[in-house]
Write a structure and sequence with these properties.
35% helix, six-stranded parallel sheet, alpha/beta
Length: 424
């Protein structure tokens, strides 16, 4: 059997897909590695295409892996970047198995067949219109279990290429989700993260919604922690917020993309909310769930037409929202999107300057939030190297075995993580 290198780019949905591929290959008798220095004879890359930089990184790794694998090793790709690849380009890059946004459930058997019978070329991409069932029995690459419950997006923000690559929204049947949760708990999973491309509209196509799913999950015995992946502010309805507040396993952290704090830019982005509506959601979460809930976010700077005042509005909303962890991205033009044709392009120099300023503010806000826990008790799920995350999704350092949940006293915040003393 083979040693298979797996690398995952992109979002938490991609992480879930990577876990499925790793686990399935392992069940077929193959070993899995994330170490490029090992002597692997096959490689699988789960790709991303959210920015031009993501495209570049995918292309670069694929070329590097082809060189490492030589003439005999198997190279497979799937995900958003490879969805748009032509067969001719894939062959030129030395790809043997070409998957896309769909077809990932075929990837393990395709890799296994080639390892057993020799190299060939296979295009296993499928239609984007149907739900693609993937199941994970236990995490292989992480301590936490990422569970994709939704795929696709029909929002079409003017800067985003992902709806074209992932297809229309589709939801996973509720009974399949609940069944997998129970199986993961039986296999020792402590924490599950629901993921999706547009997670908040889960269930629209199968006559349910995310709030109803959370209510069902709340009834499951043995689940220690439940998290949600990125969710849009307009999806956080009163019903969903109440369901989260009543769910004992829900960890008090939500990642809510802001992108811009300026109403004019938000309208040009076609985000579906204004700055005040975003802030009102944050206030409601603190009122209904906890005043210590961690609100992390995404910020997109340098969008066409973004003036100095518009950028300052974004910084102001970041502060007023009391954000914690913030991911900042310079606007990346994606051909085929409406924003690519807009006037008012921002220079590279200005984008880099604004990115740096927003990152600096984000670090301060995260530090202020993390330091507010000093002197309190934290519950930490250890993932590796005595590090893990608190229920509020703050990285922490504390001595313990992987997959341990520890109670610890928070002593300080340094180097981007809490330093804790175990009380157990």
């Amino acid at each position: 059997m083979g040693l298979v290198y797996i690398h995952v780019f992109g979002c938490r949905s991609s992480l879930c897909e990577g876990e499925f591929i790793a686990g399935s290959l392992q069940s077929l008798g193959h070993e899995i590695t994330e170490d490029l220095t090992q002597d692997f004879n096959a490689a699988v890359v789960v790709t991303c295409s959210v920015t031009q930089e993501a495209d570049r990184k995918c292309r670069s790794l694929v070329r590097k892996l082809r060189r490492i694998l030589g003439n005999d090793g198997i190279l497979a790709v799937c995900g958003c970047w490879s969805e748009s690849l032509s067969v001719e380009k894939a062959r030129e890059l030395g790809i043997d198995i070409l998957g896309g946004s769909k077809g990932k459930n075929l990837m393990p058997s395709a890799v296994n067949d080639m390892l057993c019978h020799g190299r060939d070329f296979a295009d296993i991409r499928k239609s984007l219109s149907q739900w693609e069932e993937i199941e994970i029995s236990a995490p292989v690459m992480h301590t936490r279990s990422f569970m994709k419950i939704q795929d696709g997006c029909n929002h079409f923000c003017t800067y985003c290429i992902i709806p074209f690559l992932r297809g229309k929204p589709v939801s996973r049947p509720e009974k399949n989700i609940l069944s997998e949760i129970n199986r993961l708990i039986d296999n020792g999973t402590k924490e599950i993260i629901f993921t999706g491309i547009h997670l908040g509209i889960y269930g629209h196509d199968i006559n349910t919604n995310l709030a109803e799913l959370i209510k069902q999950v709340s009834k499951i015995d043995g689940l220690k922690r439940l998290r949600l992946g990125s969710i849009e502010p307009f999806c956080l309805s009163d019903d969903l917020i109440n369901a989260l507040a009543e769910c004992e396993s829900f960890c008090h952290h939500l990642h809510i993309p802001l992108q811009s704090g300026d109403d004019g830019i938000l309208s040009s982005m076609r985000r579906g909310y204004n700055a005040r509506e975003f802030l009102n959601v944050c206030y409601k979460l603190r009122e209904k769930i906890s005043d210590k809930i961690h609100i992390s976010s995404d910020i997109l700077v340098g969008f066409p037409g973004e003036s100095d005042d518009a950028f300052k509005n974004t910084l102001s909303v970041m502060k007023e929202a009391g954000m914690g962890r913030v991911h900042v991205f310079p606007y990346s033009e994606r051909p085929g999107t409406l924003a690519a044709e807009m006037n008012g392009k921002i220079s590279h120099q200005v984008k880099i300057s604004r990115t740096s300023e927003a990152i600096s503010l984000g670090r301060k806000l995260y530090g202020d939030y993390a330091e507010s826990f000093i002197g309190s008790e934290a519950e930490i799920l250890i993932e590796r190297d005595n590090r893990g995350y608190t229920r509020h999704y703050i990285e922490a350092e504390c001595y313990g075995k992987n997959n341990d949940i520890l109670k610890a006293e928070v002593k300080s915040f340094d180097d981007g993580r809490l330093k804790c003393l175990c009380r157990d």
